[in-house]
Amino acid sequence: MAQVAHEVQQRLKTLEEIRHLLRSIRAMSAIRWRRARARLRSAQQYAGAVDQQLALVTTLPTPLTRDAHRHVGGSGPGAGGSMGLIALTSDRGLCGTFNVGLVAQALDFIEREREKGGQIKVIALGGYGERFFRAAGCELLYTQHFPLTHAVSFAEARDIVAKVKRLYEARTFNTLYLIYNQFVSFGRYQRVEMRLLPPDLNSIWRKARQAAGDGRAVVPEDLILGTPPQDLQDFLLWEHLAVQVYLGLIESMVSEHGARLQTMDAAITNLDERMDQLWLQYHAIRQEGITRQVLEVQSNTQARYHRRAIQVRDRLVN
After folding, report:
1. What is the 3-state secondary structure (H, E, C) of the chain?
2. 148, 159, 247, 294: most buried by Cβ count inside 10 Å?
3. Using one digit for the tens of pLDDT, what is the confidence trace for 35-68?
4. Whether 178 contacts 248, CB under 8 Å
């Protein structure tokens, strides 16, 4: 009985250590979720400003904008085309179905485009995606990890876009898509599939018209540019791409930490329930031991009393 009680105590001690670890992970994820949420608001404001400026200068044709207009009605590279796919996943697990649903959608996307005759090349941002797509036999152009303690900066997004630009100009792929988990609210996210290259100019113009409002023209008649329009357009197109990648990274990180918070909460709740059951078991074993000891004391007392009574009787008889 004492051995069983000791084993239950050891299990309770182990569960308490695990609970402390889970609470630490939850606390760190909560801090990183709030920081990433604050960066997301700033990134969204900057993205809106870039889109407004881009809408002003995309009226002049360049090879990039001509490709963009040519792909407005299409959803893929066409037969025999080459396509790039950026998949944003986390580096680590402990975040529920955050990665599973995303890589499943990415595989569906790859299979769908392969059936059309396209060649898919993957850019995996996140350790989970790299391991998954490598095991799935997909062609990886390059990969990058984002540890849990790492805060993604806009400079890193620019570096990623610089690599993408070199691959695009080298015609490694004709179109580029991005799949990531978009933040909706705390604990909620949705998987988004969007085209990055060639840029969706119709979407940019639509947002610019909505921002202008009141039927006003997106491009003012008295617009004065201090920079050659073509150079400005080229800069803003790639800046737009960098902002979209950065937004995707930040929203993915916010969603990841939100999912991890929910997973830790569920794990802590299950752990508390298990510990309550073990405490009840421990108290039951302890109470049983106490009851057994009381019964043994009572039995010994009765035995001594009985022996004493016999001794007294024997003296009286003699």
Report:
1. CHHHHHHHHHHHHHHHHHHHHHHHHHHHHHHHHHHHHHHHHHHHHHHHHHHHHHHHHCCCCCHHHHHHHHCCCCCCCCCCCEEEEEEECCCCCCCCCHHHHHHHHHHHHHHHHHHCCCEEEEEEECHHHHHHHHHCCCEEEEEECCCCCCCCCHHHHHHHHHHHHHHHHCCCCCEEEEEEEEEEECCEEEEEEEEEECCCHHHHHHHHHHHHCCCCCCCCCCCCCCCCHHHHHHHHHHHHHHHHHHHHHHHHHHHHHHHHHHHHHHHHHHHHHHHHHHHHHHHHHHHHHHHHHHHHHHHHHHHHHHHHHHHHHHHHHC
2. 247
3. 888 888 888 888 888 887 777 777 655 555 555 5
4. yes
* 175, amino acid identity: T
pLDDT digits (tens, 9 = 90+) for 232-251: 777 888 888 999 999 999 99
Q: pTM for this one?
A: 0.74
